[in-house]
Amino acid sequence: MSWEKNTRKVTPYTPGEQPKVTGRIIKLNTNECPYPPSPEVEKALKALSVDELRLYPAPDAAELTEAIAEFHGTPASRIFVGVGSDDVISVAFQAFFNGSDPLLFPDVTYSFYPVWAELYGIPYETPALDEGFHIIPADYKKKNGGIIFPNPNAPTGLSEELSLIEDIVSANPESVVIIDEAYMDFGGESAAALTEKYDNLLVIRTFSKSRALAGLRVGYALGNERLIAHLNTIKYSINSYTMNLPSIKLGAAAVRDTAYFEEIVGRVIKTRERMKTELKRLGFPSRIQRPISCSQATKAFRRRRYSNTSGRTGSL
Known about the structure:
By secondary structure, the chain is an alpha/beta fold. It has one domain: Aspartate Aminotransferase, domain 2, CATH 3.40.640.10. The chain contains nine helices and nine strands. The protein has helices at residues 39-47, 62-72, 84-96, 113-119, 162-170, 225-238, 245-256, 258-281, 294-304; strands spanning 26-27, 79-82, 103-104, 124-125, 146-150, 177-180, 201-206, 219-223, 309-310. Helix 1 (39-47) runs antiparallel to helix 7 (245-256) and helix 3 (84-96) packs across helix 6 (225-238). It is globular and about 55 Å long.
């Protein structure tokens, strides 16, 4: 058809499957929290008035941003919220990566990064991780149009030392460096405190994992007020009302319940360490192996599609 010549050509991200099968299954493919959200979330849900839904929500999502700001001990002007961290990262790509020099992110990392880069026409390079699957700082000290990587990394699960992150941030004062901390609550040292020191550092987090709210879609960025202002410029140029009322109310309730948050994070970590011990006992290698190819993974998935376990990629 003639109109197709004007369409955007991009290979989209493939989200984790949500199985339609019933019964008891062990679902691992999107790294959802195995525990329910905070009891305070349920209370907030029951307290919602249906009548409020006829009104537009607060465009600045003030109740949610203020709750997150209080959690971090920082002004609300340093917080930006979005529809899951995927939305926040997408807005950040549009806001900060508009130069002619390549965006840098690792060769083994969150598979949505190259999709956004292609979608927004951003040139990019993917420096290889070292043999131990860690970032090589020197690879991120060349001319670039921005830097992003997860810490801990996905899918390796390995975290980088805070000193390494600061080394990269300080070496790139003319680029925005984004640290995607979707899994930080389960291990590693957050770069959040460094955002006070460096005006080019943005830390992004999600409520989908440690807050057990993947179904609500809440994510946020923490950084210098000027960075947040640029994010808001993009947001208000696309959709003023990104956060719906339940997300604002329930998200705020979740972040205020620190005790429950710490409890379920501790339980997940304990289970993870037990699983690691048992896998080693069964003879699985303790060293990470290079990921298998997509074709190999597809074949393996098709063979196991109707078994009782779904295995992972992960949206944020």
